[in-house]
Structure formats: C-alpha cells, structure tokens
Amino acid sequence: MKNIPLISSIMSTKIITLKKDDDLETAERLFKRHKIRHIPVVKGDAIIGMLSYTDLLRISFADAVDESETEVESLVYNMFTIEQVMAKNVVSVSSTASIKEVAEILAKKEFHALPVVDDDVLVGIVTTTDLIEFLIMQL
C-alpha cells in the first residue's frame, strides 16, 4: 500500500482569522490583501465558523466588479454581521488525516476549504488549491 502523506504536510499554518464581532468590510479587506478565499471565524483558538469570499459576493454585487480594488464601499455590509453570513456547521479535519481522506471530504461535500483542528485548536487550513499543487508536484 502506498504511503499517503498527512494533510499537515500541505496545509497552510499562517492562518488569517476573523472574530464574529469583526465587520464585513474588514473581512473583504483581508480577502483582497492576502488573496485568499476562505477565512476561519474563531473565538479564542476554537473555530466557530467559516467565511468565504463567495459568502460576501452573495450579499453584495458592488465589490464583485473589481477584485483588485482595496477600498470597500458597500453599504450592504452594514446590514449583516459576520455571524449571520458565515457557515456555522463547519466540518474540520485533524492534522493527522491523510491527504486522500481530505480530498474525499472536499469532493463529496463540495467544499473548497477545510479547517485543520487538533484538540479543539485551529492549527491550519487546507484548500482545493493546496491539493491541486500537491498533485502537480507528484506528476
């Protein structure tokens, strides 16, 4: 049987996070500044939700036009909180999960990112991009 690497070998450990009390303008700035699509929402070290850039686009078309724009000018963001927009029932994996296990979850659930949690502490995030880059290196 092949030795399938652990997800800890490809996950991102420099995690950008939000708190539920942060505002959506802050979230959009983080998405654009760091060129990311998913941000875990945390309370202390524990994950309580996941916010995706797609979640923001669902409530506001104004900022979808120019993704390179860094100024946020969306009044609709004042109508919602991160807690209202984020996904709350977050599926997570441990850092000892195999890359294959994670790929199967992402494919089945049609997620694009999973938080990596050990002992109720957020330790990383893995995305479909991480898996594609891993696959490319194998070829």
TrEMBL record:
The keyword rRNA-binding does not apply. SMART domains: CBS. CDD domains: CBS_pair_AcuB_like (cd04584). Residues 11-67, 86-139 form the CBS domain. InterPro entries: CBS_dom, CBS_dom_sf, Diverse_CBS-Domain. Keywords: CBS domain. The keyword Acetylation does not apply. It holds the Pfam family CBS. This is CBS domain-containing protein. It comes from Gelidibacter pelagius.
